[in-house]
Each structure stands twice: as C-alpha cells, then as structure tokens.
Amino acid sequence: MKDKSEEYWKKKLTPEQFQILREKGTEPAFTGALLKNKDGGMYHCAACGTSLFSSDTKYDSKSGWPSFWEAVDKENIELKDDKSLFMKRTEVVCSNCGSHLGHLFEDGPKQTGLRYCINSTSLSFSREKKKDK
Ligand code: FE
User: Fold this and answer.
1) Which are the contacts of 73, defined by CB distance < 8 A and separation ≥ 6?
2) Which of 54, 46, 43, 57 is nearest to 13 (CA)?
C-alpha cells in the first residue's frame, strides 16, 4: 500500500489521523483514546489494518503514549533514523503502508529493554474473540 497517494489517505483518514500517520505528527501526551486500554486483543495500523502490537506486550511507561515492549511481528514494522527536532531518534513506521506510528526507545522493561512509543491515533484496537467453551 506504499504506492497510495496522499490524496487517497486524505479521503480515508480523519484530519487528526492524517496529520499523525502521514505527516509524522505526535498527539499530545496523555490524550490518546487507547492509552489506558487494558483489554486483551490486537492493535492494528489505523491506516491499513496491519497487526502491529499484542495487548500482551502493552505496558504503562508513564510517557503519556501507548507503549509496547515488542512488535507482534518484526516484518510488520519498519525502523528509520529520525533526526528531526535536533534529536536522534528511531522512527517506527508501518511496513505495509508506510504510515508513521511513533518512535522506538531503548528504555523499556526487562523483557526486551525496548519501548515502542506509539501514537494512540495511529492505532485501531480489536478485542480478542472470546473462545467458546
Ligand atoms: Fe499501515
């Protein structure tokens, strides 16, 4: 989906989603709808639906953005050097559609030491289907 035009995304996404996903924006800390979500399920790319993070790896980093210590599949995310804002950071991008998700830091919990710091606006959540007993 990386060949989709910005016109395509402008029609598909809300203005807020477009600004963050396509123009590498950042939502204000502690405002994201999924920040405090503790339900079991899967976090997808809000632009294209690719599975990105499992609720099993979500934790409270106190940063104000949804944080995960591991991606559900490394193939589904792309890491890029980001030298904007006079900082050297690692940008996290959806590998399917190229949309901006957030940044990766190396101050995460002991499982991996990683913190995927992701905009709530860049994510859509699907609850795990309850298994029939
Ligand atoms: Fe995507």
Assistant:
1) 51
2) 46
- Identify whether 132 is part of a domain: no
Q: What's the gap between Cα 14 and its chain centre?
A: 16
pTM of the model: 0.94
Residue 73: the pLDDT is: 97
* Domain assignment of residue 66, yes or no: yes
Rounded to the nearest 10 degrees, how much is the dihedral formed by the CA atoms of 17, 22, 27, 32? Answer: 40
Indicate which CATH number applies to the domain containing 66: 2.170.150.20
How far does the centroid of ligand 1 lie from the alpha carbon of residue 87, in Å? 25
Q: Which of 45, 48, 97, 117 is catalytic?
A: 117
Q: State both tokens at 96.
A: 């399917």
